[in-house]
Amino acid sequence: MRLVVNGVTHTLDLDPRTTVLDALREHLRLTGAKKGCDHGQCGSCTVLLDGRRVNSCLLLAVAHEDARITTIEGLGTEEEPHPVQRAFVEHDGFQCGYCTPGQICSAVGMLEEAARGWPSAVTSGSVVSEQRLDDAEVRERMSGNLCRCGAYPNIVDAIRSVQ
Questions:
Q1: Count of CB atoms situated within 10 Å of the CB of 114
Q2: What domains lie within the chain, and their CATH numbers?
């Protein structure tokens, strides 16, 4: 099967039960996305699939042949980090760093959702206005990504600085 990861097409021979996360980590050696809970509850495995954030531990790779997958490794480079990556560093949006790749991928996807006007559970009205997301909006939209270290205030500050 073919997986398009970070703009590169890979042909892989996978067991049909292989998740996207395991294909990334074990077959492509892209270890940014982490296996936290393996139940889709913590968000440490978050990647972008055709631009939308997903828990890669819940997706079978065979169901996403030719989909565009973007991992933390594909968002930016060391020389030119993605604006969200840069903001996490500038705002100290991490402690141990285990959840950080998933947090960053989720933030990138979440900011795109908000830019498209998609509401959240705390959005007043039916669509997001042109105004910046407030702390409550960012917290709600990022609620699927857990941080055991409790770096949430800095994560919110980092995300809000990018929008």
A1: 22
A2: 2-74 (3.10.20.30), 83-162 (1.10.150.120)
* Mean pLDDT computed over every residue of the chain: 93
Q: Are 40 and 58 in contact (CB under 8 A)?
A: yes
- Residues 122 and 137 sit within 8 Å (Cβ to Cβ): yes
pTM: 0.93
How does DSSP classify residue 128?
-
The pLDDT tens digits for 85-140 are 999 999 999 999 999 999 999 999 999 999 888 888 888 765 565 567 899 999 99
C-beta of residue 85 within 8 angstroms of C-beta of residue 76: yes
Starting at the earlier edge strand, list the strands of the sheet with 46-49. 8-11, 2-5, 68-70, 46-49, 52-55
Q: Across-strand partners of 54? A: 47
Radius of gyration (Cα) for the chain, nearest Å?
A: 16
Is the pLDDT at 63 greater than 70? The verdict is yes
| Residue pair 93/137 in contact by the 8 Å Cβ criterion | no
3-state SS, 27-42, equals HCCCCCCCCCCCCCCC
